[in-house]
Write a structure and sequence with these properties.
This protein is of the alpha/beta class. Helix content is 43%, strand content 18%. The structure holds pyridoxal-5'-phosphate (PLP).
């Protein structure tokens, strides 16, 4: 709806592959913008594609790195969108699961110029097969947005919407989130402790305040793709972070999901994974 074929769009590098694929379906030209410890390098975006039509970002928990977009960068991004007449799509895909600290204000709440489209999902808070999400859309786009949705599939099933609405109204949703948050935090900590204990010298763990995965950085020279393949042989599914890069230098790290596994499952699996990491590193050093 926002894009004309050939429009340039900022995407995070590394970033979420399905967002990129959707943009490619719309025949957008992807402009990778690197991510550092403060999130998207807005200055690099401005230097390389100042007239881009839109920026697609995950500010509260960058996918896949987990970094939070700093307040200075949030303000710079909004200032850019206003000045360039661009739009920002704020993908807040895991905001319900916050374990400590307060979140920074959403771009959508900071923006007074109607440049931000905020999108969220019940994929993680409830379940992926539900296919219900939500968006906060600038007034000026609303009619077009509703018309486009009508053309795609009209609407999500009204029965599901009604059930979810009642689930929320009666307080079950809030209770569910509170319960899952405690559980996920315990699972996050179990994973981080077990991995540090068994592979402490070979990984550096970023403990996230939010979300359902943590990032374990590997030592220089160890291939995350090889660890991913070796782990799979031992029935452990990890994602190599280097897959998610376009142009920025690839960093070898593992994305490790911790939600949905009790600590008694996580701990032995983390020990097996630690063994895989250590062995892969040692084999790579021997070969060269
Ligand atoms: C970065 C990011 N955005 C969005 C989503 C949600 O997608 P959907 O609600 O279409 O399942 C996910 C899901 O994993 C995600 O990781």
């Amino acid at each position: 709806m926002l894009l004309t074929p050939g429009d340039r769009v900022w995407v995070e590098d590394p970033g979420y592959f399905l967002t990129r694929r959707q943009l490619m379906l719309a025949n957008a030209v992807l402009q990778p913008v690197p991510v550092d410890a403060e999130g998207l390098r807005v200055d690099v975006g401005i230097a390389t594609a100042p007239r881009a039509r839109a920026a697609f970002v995950t500010p509260s928990h960058q996918f896949p790195t987990g970094v939070v977009l700093s307040m200075a960068r949030r303000l710079a991004l909004i200032a850019w969108a206003r000045q360039a007449g661009g739009f920002i799509v704020e993908d807040d895909y895991a905001s319900e699961f916050r374990y400590s600290g307060r979140p920074l204000a959403a771009l959508q709440g900071l923006d007074e110029g109607e440049r931000v489209i905020y999108v969220g999902t019940l994929n993680k808070a409830l379940f992926p097969g539900l296919r219900i999400g939500y968006a906060v859309v600038p007034e000026a786009l609303l009619q077009a947005y509703v018309a486009a949705r009508y053309l795609i599939d009209r609407q999500p099933p009204s029965l599901h919407q009604a059930v979810v609405a009642e689930f929320m109204r009666e307080g079950y949703f809030a209770a569910h989130i509170r319960r899952m948050r405690l559980m996920y935090r315990e699972q996050r900590d179990a994973l981080a402790h077990a991995l540090a204990r068994h592979a402490g010298g070979d990984v550096r763990i970023d403990l996230p305040d939010q979300g359902m995965h943590l990032v374990a950085h590997l030592r220089a020279g160890v291939s995350d793709l090889e660890v991913e393949a070796a782990a799979r042989e031992r029935d452990i599914v990890v994602r190599a972070m280097s897959r998610f890069y376009l142009a920025a230098p690839r960093r070898a790290a593992l994305m490790l999901g911790f939600s949905g596994f009790p600590p008694q499952v996580i701990k032995p699996a983390a020990a097996r994974l630690a063994h895989v990491i250590t062995r892969t590193g040692a084999a790579e050093r021997r070969s060269g």
